[in-house]
Sequence to fold (711 residues):
Amino acid sequence: MGKRLGKKVMWLTAIALLVGFMSCGAAYCEEKVIKIGTLFPLTGPVALAGQRCKAAVEAAVDLINNSYPNIPVPLAAQKGLLGGHKIVLVHADHQGKPDVGKSEAERLYDQEGVFAVIGSYNSAVTKPASLVAERRKKIFMCGCSSSAELTKRGTRYFFRIAPTDETESIEFVNFIKWLNETKGTNYKTFGVIYENTEFGKHAAQEAKKAIEAAGFQYVADVAFNPGATNLNSEVQMLKGKNPDVVFGACLGADYILWIKTMKQMSWLPKVSLNYCSGYQDPLIAKQLGGDGDYFMGTTGYSPELAELMPAVAPVEEIYKKKINPPVPFDSDSIQEAVAMLVLAQAIEKVGSLDTEKIVDALYANEWDSPLSLGGKVAFAPGGQNIKAMSIVTQLVGGQYKRVFPEQFANFEPVVPMPSWDKRK
Amino acid sequence: MAVFLQVVLDGLLNGMLYALVTIGLSLIWGVMDIINFAHGEFLMIAMYVSYWLGFLMHVDPLISWIASGIFVFLLSVIVYKLIVSQLIGKPALSALLATFGLSMLLKNICLNRFSPNFKLLSDTYLGGKVIQLGNNLILSLPQFIIAVASMVIILLTYHFMTSTKIGWAIQATAMDRDAAELMGIDTNKIYALVFGIGGACVGIAGGLLPMYMPVHPEVGSLFSLIAFICVAMGGFGSIIGSLLAALLVGLIEALVGFYIAPIFKYVAVFGLYLIVILIKPRGLFGW
Fold:
């Protein structure tokens, strides 16, 4: 009798456990979440930029998951996607290292089971990490990595929002031509200083191509190792060649050190144009104070461009709550928010989480993007956003003034840059 | 010719900075036979001390280096008492791993407290000031001040080590700890002092660097690597050897960087290190 009772209890316990386990599974399914991975440099030499990119994606997810009927951004008015699915972010830190980025991308897709990954800021990391996605036929959305090479690989699942260093190089050269034609300058010789990474090397290649195609002379090619203890030889080399115009591809602390070293060596080019770099970082601009003035570069967004993009302000308020110190969007971080919003629009349009259909939809449609300068996003084969735009700005008094193209300009560019001894 | 002289001058100034960073490591390595892997992080902490004094209290690095030096001296003594003293006499790997762990701890504390953001003092007294030497030579004042400080600290350390009773006690401890103890020298105190002096030297370098260099949690990494090379190349425990090795590293870096290509400057430095170690495994001036 006792034995029978024992068996019954065993069976009842087993059934209870099974039912409990299954109901837990059902409850998880009912939670309706879409896991998206983010892959940024959250530590290391460019961590500041990475933290901002992460916060920008979080702001976009906040917009998607909650209802903000007064913000004129697609999906802001509704709550969630696909009838109530919430997006859950899984964050990963690649430290600016390609090998770490690759293994973290593998972890995100294979172990965390994310639907897509957004990242990775550094082109050198984006390249291997996006190939991880390609092999798995999973989507990789890239906000701001600028190496033109990334969208020339014939990939299907990789999409990039920002302009490339190819388009930026052409824009820089057009700007110099415009200066020569309209301002009476006669700038002919060019140099490039760049970090010896995927980003820097490709920026330099594109710069050389654009400079030579326009008939200018490429006189100085200066590569450096990021995180160097000094940039004396690099600046000495530039000073020796003395080009009229220098294009810079220097990130974070290296950008600061480059400018400080030029000051120590009492040298400046007549014009300095910078790719997505320390130039675009408002915090670095603030720290450099007057020393950072009169440098130029492309900007996809800065607070001074807000009047051209009125939808940014309310989103920026959400973003500021997610970053310490609460700084405005910069050119790079805002592109990551756009990447998240465009992916969400595609998921909503397809109405399911079918990767192939979503990829097809991403290529086939033009997406509204009030957080982009052009207002639209559309992808060419290879994944490049063909609607990407940026404006040449000049930093004056700590503010990014719009100088080119003419239709967006609100400031007469100061050229040549005043020498160090003539600055306040 | 003017360009060559400028490159040499820049190289020597950088070499003097490396010497100041190296000297403390050399002392610790030579006397205690301990590799302090947290040396670069001591530099980083000194830079933060100088930065915060400048940012919060408007103290220029020209003065705050004193506070940085004292702060890192005290930190080093505490680190010695709490960690390193437990490892004296144990296999060298124990101290190496312990100081490596300490370096990770310090870096992550700074990441957590100060964020990975770059911090730069905008208005330092000498920041960006230069002296024109003749028509073509330019001397960067912040780098010159660091070079002068480096020379003074090295001379003082050398004098302290060779001409004072404590210095002799340190040398005696380095040569034979047991014999030194039999002579009545408290080697534990000597070790604490050496670790403290080593920290103070790198602390002074870190206190002066924010005159032109941004501070962030990773800033010490490459400096510490170069310091290791200078110590090994100069000869363990040799102050003069470390100085000459640091100057050589600065010069090679500048000359190769300018005349070959900047991306090869560290390749040349590490290549030179390998050659020296192959020819003279104990370094140029090692005993």
Remarks:
- Chain B touches chain A at residues 3, 6-7, 10-11, 14, 17, 111, 115-120, 122-123, 127-128, 130, 132, 138, 140, 142-143, 212-214, 216-219, 221-223, 226, 253-254, 256-258, 261-263, 265-266 (CB under 8 Å).
- DSSP finds eleven helices and two strands in chain B.
- Chain B has one domain: 2-279.
